[in-house]
Amino acid sequence: MDDYLENGIYGQKQTKPDERRKFLGSLRERVVVALTQSQVREKGVYKEVQEALKENPDARLLLNGSMSYTFLSKYIKLADTFNISFSMVTNMETETDVGLVLAYNEAIDKEEIFVQEKSLKKKEDVKKKKSIFSSIKKMLF
Fold first, then answer.
1. Are strands 31-36 and 98-103 parallel, antiparallel or unpaired?
2. How far apart are CA 89 and CA 98, in angstroms?
3. How far is 75 from 44, CA to CA, in rounded Å?
4. Are 75 and 45 in contact (CB under 8 A)?
5. What domains lie within the chain, and their CATH numbers?
6. H helices present in 56-96, as ranges
7. CA-CA distance, 101 to 26, in Å (whole number)?
8. Are the CB atoms for 96 and 128 separated by under 8 Å?
9. Tens digits of per-residue pLDDT, 44-90?
10. Contacts (Cβ under 8 Å, ≥6 apart) of 81
11. Which Gene3D superfamilies would you find in this protein's record (predicted)?
């Protein structure tokens, strides 16, 4: 009887509610790939997300509904291209830094789910280029 009343007052009990809030209603063990809000706001589409959408046709794309549609539209179009269902998840009670999640309804336990930021990749490329140019410069002078 107490359980019935608690369900009526507080709603149905959930497993790992903090994790569900962070990953837009899904659990970390179900996630294929995830992007932060700042990554979703960047120009262009992450190729890792595009490949994941192509390789996981039964997964579902979850988008942070508190973000502007202009940033999410490129991923919505991409999901339509690969016939992936998507949902805009809006939770006014809590905020999360996650902007996009591609997840299954069951656990897949993927080790690395967050994509490295493009800006970090570009910085690494610049460092490599500097070292090549600096070595040529040293040879000439």
1. antiparallel
2. 11
3. 9
4. yes
5. 19-140 (3.30.1330.30)
6. 69-81
7. 8
8. no
9. 999 999 999 999 999 999 999 999 999 999 999 999 999 999 999 99
10. 53
11. 3.30.1330.30
